[in-house]
Design a protein that fits this description.
The complex is a heterotetramer, with one copy of chain A (235 residues), one copy of chain B (721 residues) and two copies of chain C (80 residues).
Chain A lengths: L1 E2 L2 E6 L6 H10 L3 E6 L10 E4 L20 H10 L4 E4 L1 H8 L6 E3 L7 E9 L15 E8 L3 E3 L2 H7 L4 E6 L18 E5 L5 E4 L17 H10 L2 E2 L2
Parallel strand pairs in A: 2-3, 2-4, 4-5, 5-12
Antiparallel strand pairs in A: 1-13, 6-9, 7-8, 7-10, 10-11, 11-12
Chain B lengths: L6 H4 L4 H11 L5 H10 L2 H4 L4 H4 L9 E3 L6 E6 L2 E9 L1 H6 L1 H17 L4 E11 L5 H21 L3 E8 L8 E11 L14 E6 L9 H6 L19 H16 L5 E4 L4 H13 L2 E5 L12 H6 L5 E6 L4 H10 L3 E9 L3 E6 L2 E7 H5 L14 H6 L11 H9 L8 H4 L10 E3 L6 E4 L6 E8 L1 H6 L1 H17 L4 E10 L6 H21 L3 E7 L3 E2 L2 E2 L3 E10 L17 E5 L11 H6 L14 H14 L4 E4 L4 H13 L3 E3 L5 H4 L6 E5 L12 E7 L3 E3 L5 E3 H10 L2 H4 L1
Parallel strand pairs in B: 4-5, 9-12, 17-18, 24-27
Antiparallel strand pairs in B: 1-2, 2-3, 3-6, 4-6, 7-10, 7-11, 8-10, 9-11, 12-13, 14-15, 15-16, 16-21, 17-21, 19-20, 22-25, 22-26, 23-25, 24-26, 27-28
Chain C lengths: L1 E9 L6 H12 L4 E14 L4 H16 L5 E7 L2
Antiparallel strand pairs in C: 1-2, 1-3
The chains are: A alpha/beta (235), B alpha+beta (721), C alpha+beta (80).
The structure holds adenosine-5'-diphosphate (ADP) and magnesium ion.
The site of adenosine-5'-diphosphate has 18 residues of chain B, from strand 4, strand 5, helix 17 and strand 16.
Amino acid sequence: MTIGRRVAVIVFPGSNCERDVAYAMQLLGADPELVWHRETDLSEFDGVILPGGFAHGDYLRTGAIARFSPVMTEVERLADAGTPVLGICNGFQILCEAGLLPGALVANRDLKFICRPVHLRVESTDSVLTRAATVGDVLRIPLNSFEGNYVAPAPVLDDLENGGVVLRYSDADGSVSDAANPNGSLNNIAGIANGGGNVAGLMPHPERAIETVLGSTDGRILLESFVASLDRVTA
Amino acid sequence: MTTEAPAHIQLGMTDAEYDAVVDILGREPRPAELAMYSVMWSEHCSYKSSRAWLGRFPTEAPWVVVGPGENAGVVDLGDGWLAALRIESHNHPSFVEPFQGAATGVGGILRDIFTMGARPIAVWDPIRFGPLDDAHNRYLLDGVVSGIAHYGNAVGVPTLGGEIEFSERYSANPLVNVMALGILKQEQLVLSAASGEGNVAILLGASTGRDGIGGASILASASFDESSGAKRPSVQIGDPFEEKKLIEACLELYERGLVVGIQDLGAAGISCATSECAANGGVGMVVDLDDVPLREDDMNAGEILMSESQERMLAIVEPDDVDEVLELAEKWEINGAVIGTVTAGGTLEVRQHGEVVAEVPAASLSEDAPLYRRPAERPEALDRLWADPVDLPAGLDVGETLLRMLDDPAVGDRSWIYQQYDHQLFLNTVIEPGHDGSLLRIKGTTKGLAVSTDGNGRLCFMDPRRGGARIVYESALNVAVTGARPFAVVDNLNFGNPEKPEIMWQFIETIEGMSAACEALGVPVIGGNVSFYNETDGVDIFPTPVVGMLGFADPMPGHVPRLDQAEPGMEVWLIGPEDPTDFAGTTYSRVVLDHVGGRPSDVDHTIGPKVVDEAVRLAHAGVPVLHDISVGGAAVAVAEICFRSGCGARVDSDDWRTLLSAGPHRFLAVVPPGFDLEVTDVPARRIGTMGGNHIDFGRHGRVPLSLAADVWRNAIPRRMG
Amino acid sequence: MTQVRVSITRKDGLSDPEGVATRRALLDLGYDVGEVHFGRIINLEVDDTDEASVRAAVTAMCERLLANPVIEDYSIEVLS
Amino acid sequence: MTQVRVSITRKDGLSDPEGVATRRALLDLGYDVGEVHFGRIINLEVDDTDEASVRAAVTAMCERLLANPVIEDYSIEVLS
Ligand SMILES: Nc1ncnc2c1ncn2[C@@H]1O[C@H](COP(=O)(O)OP(=O)(O)O)[C@@H](O)[C@H]1O
Ligand SMILES: [Mg+2]
């Protein structure tokens, strides 16, 4: 039988989307728990989400201080062990800083904070974030960030383009162009995953698109993918 | 050689005020005491020129839990839920340093909310600038919006709207108002009273530095002139990260029932917080400044008492709970320092280095502040203004006129602003910025809160009483179109120099107009703020009251009207009385004719509330689009529906004036063909049909939808680059 | 082209939350540091080779755009 | 205590939106500038007086925390 589906939603000082993510997890049938960043044992959990916000005020560099939080050693251990780990927005930035995902996120091309829905095209289903989706699906999901501009040195990027890119900014028809790039991200990259597909990060906020009353339900497929990845079957 | 002015004059006190201090103390004040009185008795802290008039506002209703006077007003939403609302100005600091001025404005207003025990859930930003063809005004707008975005987004409270106007009158004195909303459960309500001899005062949050020494009195209580540059060191740097930790720490303190009273540190810092806490509780306090965590160690007593360092709170705690409170502070990684003890009697005693540096009756700092009934006189120039109405042509190409109006930055798309603000955090946002009022759900209930901020300085300049009433009605309609009924008001009264009789007259008239409208609507005023001395080099701003209207929907409509739900073939209806003569203060007369003159139409307290009721009823009746008509007239209102819905419209009118006139009590409803509106109480007439690729006014001209939308979308971006 | 480095720091006495947060992180990592303050560098190429006039031009740029004189001080180094 | 200045700049070839925007603004104001690059300064006090060991300690701080080696270069000046 299936037990578990316990999700640790990590709370750093300055995180602010942790309750929203927990709400979404609950809505989708998982069992979320807010976990303070000083915690060092996550062995009871089936998955980990690093939510959005401004961990440590985003000071120094976004994610730079958070990656040294005590909990991150444990997150790294779980990531290596194949446990689903998802970083949303600031959480994605932290995963990059921690080296769990390649590249980095820098200030948006126009140096303005961007809060608006964007379109994302699903590029790969080999990740805990996209396994329930279909390549080519176009999702409308809110973006909400100042440092969402994905950069990586050329060799890293080349490597990533071998299946590591899971979501790209596109227009409503799914065409990927500069005009559809809200923040200057290289190759319109909005979300990526590691080689094993168990660690994924994206800048837009799927938890903000899970109910009709809030304007879109397109984020569900991504979070449902994640929840489905949590299943842990025991004897 | 000039002799230096006496200390109290340098601190902005009059001789008479100084004498009053001597009377209270029975001796000359010590330096730190003088500093405390000067700030606490400043206009900003004491409301000495306005207090006598603010009592006019209606403040009572069965659902008011906390009215004006506390940090925020609180209303009862039923089922144990309360909402807290508060508005503040940060005008002068934002002119000196727009980014930090606006940022710290957000920080301050949030503290007012969580001081009440509430979690802040949304912010609004009514702002005013000089025209955008001037580079400095663009710099100010850019800085203010970035500052609000920086602080609000990082502290994790969504900004759900605001409003903006432009006029030369604001070039040297921009307005930055901020409003915040919080929600809480009944049992979490906390007040700012210290009580219980022996209780302990704990300072929480940031260290105390030399920030904004005398900022409140100097920046907010005096006019600006050439020498304002010298006041610059009083800029404060906001730290949203510290505030975020402080919010979480305080909310946890309340949850665990660990505070007896709490007060935020705003203007006048520690002296204000300690004296108010003590005075509100009818007690005294002994405070030791050696225990205050300092950012710079050589600060003197006056500097520490007066410092306006941000992100600090003063909690009053029972002795047994001190350890738990300090542990909690440590968990959230903020300072927690015991700085004082509550005493019997009413004396506030402050010590530093083992010596008493101040010893004053706590209540005297707030309650004995001077009260002025400054002379008020109606400006004669108003007669000339009223005798100079807009000169209207017999006919007009409304299409072409509309295009010119849409290019105006106060009419054009405001998304350049609100897309810089997180407006979705907490998953409550049902109607996001870009409509009339914004609407938030309260999760776990069927209740919704709608909020709108509204002001119109030009209209209030032309007739402060009518203008004041009209902005209240406009705000009421803005929340009503989301299905919420007007429930409570906060106001921010931004005015010029109160020592001028015509400014006092504007002030009193405005309050009269706003009060009458609130009474007619049955809406209590639960809080507000006064910002005087918005004057630079002798030029006063337009009198600019800003209304923050809280609407309450219980339940929310099953299907909430939105501007983007119009479809080809739907009928466009205009609900409310026609007023084709109302052109004073319209967008048309401002943008096209550059004319300020005539007299705005008065409100109608009989029909006004009925129109609001109809809007609420229609929102619940499933009408897909409701939109209030403001000073842009029906033409602009229809155009906004077209842009948001991506669909043209044809609107017919015998008289072009009905398309561009204002008129206080009107809104549009867009409904499927044959939908029975059942409007009986107020006038309603069908004016057009959605569809086509034009905004088409029949014989009054038309304009291609795509062109109009482009102009509207670019009005702000093309100027801001 | 002349290479210029502009260094911009916050005026004394103003708080520097970023410095405070970074100091704390360094202490947590075991580094014994005192005050930590943040600033910005702007490296510029100016199309002029006369040092005095380059300096004058960059000073004007700082006053008008690069620095915020209300809260920041700046210094200019002409590198080549 | 030794004063140290760390300068951190974006690696060549990676996007520098602040630099690009500032260059555009300077050109708009009529200043003839070539490339413009942004960086940050971190001024630190280190509790140690031996230059070599200060430098070693600050290098370690940069590698671990202050700079992101994926996208940034850093340089260290020991000031006093
Ligand atoms: N300064 C601002 N900050 C955020 N949102 C704003 C600002 N100014 C206007 N808006 C938003 O733009 C929309 C239209 O504003 P406005 O025309 O003032 O509304 P109305 O005329 O209906 O009161 C509203 O949703 C409002 O909240
Ligand atoms: Mg409106």
